[in-house]
Amino acid sequence: MCGIVGYVGGRPALDVVVGGLARLEYRGYDSAGVAVLADGKLATAKRAGKLANLRAALEEEPPPAGTLGMGHTRWATHGPPNDRNAHPHVDCTGSVAVIHNGIIENFAELRAELEEGGHGLESDTDTEAVAHLLEDELKSGGGLADAMRRVCRRLEGAFTLVAVHSGDPDLVVGARRNSPLVVGVGDGENFLASDVAAFIAHTRDAIELGQDQVVELRAAGVTVTDFEGRPAEVKEYHVDWDVSAAEKGGYDYFMLKEIAEQPRAVADTLLGRIGSDGRLHLDEMRISDRELREVDKIIIVACGTSYHAGLIAKYAIEHWAGLPCEVELASEFRYRDPILSPSTLVIAISQSGETMDALMAVRHAREQKAKLLGICNVNGSTLPRECDGVLYTHAGPEIAVASTKAFLTQLVAVYLIALYLAQVRGTKWGDEVFAMVQLLERMPEKVDKVLETMEPVRELARSLAGEHCVLFLGRHVGFPVALEGALKLKELAYMHAEGFAAGELKHGPIALIEENLPVVVVVPPRARDVLHDKIVSNIQEIRARGARTIVIAEEGDESVEPYADTLISVPPVPTLLQPLVTTVPLQVFACELATAKGHDVDQPRNLAKSVTVE
Ligand code: M6R
Question: What's the predicted TM-score (pTM) here?
């Protein structure tokens, strides 16, 4: 979960690399560093803290100008985030530099072996061992790429590595196993990065690297092999968004921009899914209708916000497709004994497609012969490659660490899958599926309407900036929404926030209620009368015990007014689709409250956008 950039071409490498790092800072921002090759000499600079610290150091002491370089922005795994542990790491001769994303699991034994062989290691990192291993391998001849292949064969764990060597001043070498790396193909210049955002300002032509591959990047071209040196097949693709999508566009924070982009993101994710015959068609499904009819159980695996989308999917799949559906935290999945068979469909949801917990869950399911379907926002990432089928969300790049527009598009994706299953399995008539898709197509305008009415929510958030705890309650699909509201507040405002199923309240959590404690309650539509009435009773119960109630309910729901200290109205929509409108005020609430507390909402402490380690 670090950001990596590499460049070779005709421009000043430092500008390209630092510009790329600025777009990758969401992946980690504990420290940053660069290496440049100029006149056959290697120069490095690195600083703890955000990229701004490195920029200041580079201004004060500019490295020599060169046209080949690489850079790194770090989320610490081994060793605290200080200057010493920042990447790049160099070998004893100062001629090889390495940057790394991931964890090298056998680093302790490698380090011991290197120290015994006389190498002096200066940092606490696993990465530094690679620089010294390359140093040794280079002595046996064959050049940097050969040395990298030999070193990779010795490494255990997950890694993206990029290295340069002053002995070959036109070459950047990259390698990947279980960690992302994409190539940007330019004209007389080429790029390497953890994410296309790093080079999208220069080229939209990319190459997806497979597992266990090494790439040699020169200004004149790109060569890819496996770890044995055999030529590898690669997949070229064109990125369908441009640089403006990866910029703030006048907003103070990416998160604000991404919240505002939600109506568009929802509409784009629905685009092209309905054929002229009125039936749903899903891109890259690659699982036949016959196989889907044989499915007898669905298991959804995901983490964080994507897990919350999975919880909502369960309601839709069981209701529309009549299939039993379990939802599991991806990090827990393979450590129990999940019951899987060829008739189990495992759906993995991941915005980045690089979350290691999700990938490991998918691999475990693959071993048990289950069918695999991914829901993913990033073309060229690992998850779609490892699944039998994929449904892409079209949220565009999500840069802010807190997931917003990706979540709403994941909801659209799970609704589409549930309806598609209903269509192929015949649990709903074609016209019923079509009617629901038409309702989905009206959701962008509903989300837009919610966004237009958010000023009172922002005011409320500012007024609660001094609070220490906020609780969130919901029932049915409102329960995962409550969990999502609490997660947003935790990660952005660093406050104690908990989401509960409202019915569970009296089984314990109600003891938390005290005078003036803010409690946000997500109320289902009135059409679900039993559910609705139950939650109205829950609001009364907490209010009677002194809670300050913040109620999210559909417009015109007068029954909740007497019990709401603050009422947030959302447009009426069917119950199953309600998370698309009720989540938005909770995103705005968390973002504003965290901003009022002076936090950087795009880069909350201790977090990174993609969690590529387990
Ligand atoms: O890329 P993924 O969807 O797999 O990421 C999963 C979680 O790490 C992510 O949703 C995380 O919980 C967000 N920061 C929440 O806002």
Answer: 0.83
